[in-house]
Amino acid sequence: MTEVSGTRLAQITAAGAPAAQPGLSGFRLLPEAEFAFDARIALIRRAQKSLDVQYYHIHTDELGLLFLRELRDAAARGVRVRLLMDDLYTGGQDELLLGLAAHPNVEVRMFNPLPSRAESLSTRFLFSLHEFGRINHRMHNKLLVADNSCSVTGGRNIAGEYFMRSSAANFIDMDVLSCGPVVRQMSQGFDRYWNSEQVRPVANVVARTLAPDDARRHFNEAVRAAIPELPVRPHDVMERTSVALQLEGGTLELRWAPAQFYVDDPGKIARGNDAEAFRGSVTEGALRALDSARSGVTIVSPYFIPGERGMAMMRRATGGQPGRIFLVTNSLGATDEPLVYAGYTRYRAEMLRIGVTIREIAPGITGKSGQFGDFGSSISRLHAKLAVIDDRLLFIGSMNMDHRSAAVNTEAGLLIDSAELVADYNTLIGGTSRANVAYRLRLSPDRGHVQWVELDAHGNEIVHDDEPGGYYWLRFKNWLMSPWVGEELL
């Protein structure tokens, strides 16, 4: 592991750590898109030794190109840059990634590359069907580590819709800035993937069509389409200045606490059955933490299919007492995965019967609350993946509460023991705003079907007996497709 104690990031982290409690790590929640992106760019620009970057998806829109340009510029300063990408969404990016890898100090590798290099995703699927496992098993991790000292991890990929740049739909998401000892665990996790047999250098996957000098010129020309900067307000919703400004001043405002980083073995994707894949997984660690709850649990998951294992856990946790489990997930109108939503609906009424409190994000209401950033005219979709346990433990990462995260994809997650950080989260959400920005679900008086309760501008209840917003075509497609798509594929 690279020696980084003399770097500016390591020094700022060490200076802020509480001397009376050695071994703690520092954390800051990043709920707002512009501040979450700023944190990534700030770490990239201040890295002096190394950058380890691992993502499920980096889109080549104006924001993704800015991100890649900053990695190139860091490498030009002498920083060792290692970029690890899942291969599912890299169609059409071959020359761009080869061009980045042609720069000195940069290495680019691909996780579980597909047989087809076609630009269209549907074409890649079609010409890779003979090796379906390579399509289905993906690296869903999201991680950026700078100088083995500070990191950003959580739910966001690198694309416009994760950072309020889409005119149609943007995601509500959550990342966390981490500094200190836990980041070494993240670096070790990254190295396991980087050196695994599931990973190949981009030059071994993509056929070279340009000489190195021409490849670099192609990359440099492509990233000129990036936006110069992503504007950042003076303070975030919690009245904190940006990570860039704090690093400039030499002090990071962090919550210091013990933490554990969980990361799936990259070989998980090759295990023969679900039980083997689940054993030792991030999901197993998360469920163990949830099962330890004594007073209450909040689960935030955009794609929530509990399965029988999850339902058994919730029955134990509720113990017949309503309100001990609070679930936030997407409504039909908010989800970008309607079939996953259909899988969730199979369990929804039973969850209400055993006392689970459910809120579904309302696509046209949540973004207007001002709690999660400026959505403009776009709709809001939940993408954050976190859980709060007994108002003390916070679990945050890339993992959804579904079979895919448990047994098909690889994931990463962070368990932080900090009542202060949970208090920050509760301040962000607010005691009443949860009801105002989402549908509240309940059973009908005869307990025969689900109802959605919405509040109007005056706080009066509007009760829906069917999925709010209509979405008749989506409902029909789900009715048609659901019997043929098992939960193991969702």
Q: How is the topology of this model organized?
A:
Layout: H1 8-16, E1 25-30, H2 33-46, E2 50-55, H3 62-76, E3 80-86, H4 94-101, E4 106-111, H5 121-126, H6 132-136, E5 142-146, E6 150-154, E7 169-172, E8 175-179, H7 181-194, E9 199-201, H8 202-205, H9 212-222, H10 243-249, E10 255-257, E11 259-263, H11 274-278, H12 282-291, E12 297-300, H13 307-318, E13 325-330, H14 338-353, E14 357-361, E15 379-382, E16 386-389, E17 393-397, H15 403-408, E18 412-417, H16 419-429, H17 433-436, E19 438-443, E20 450-455, E21 461-464, H18 472-481
Parallel strand pairs: 2-3, 3-4, 7-15, 12-13, 13-14
Antiparallel strand pairs: 1-8, 1-10, 2-5, 4-9, 5-6, 6-8, 11-18, 12-16, 14-19, 16-17, 17-18, 19-20, 20-21
Helix pairs in contact: 2-3, 4-9
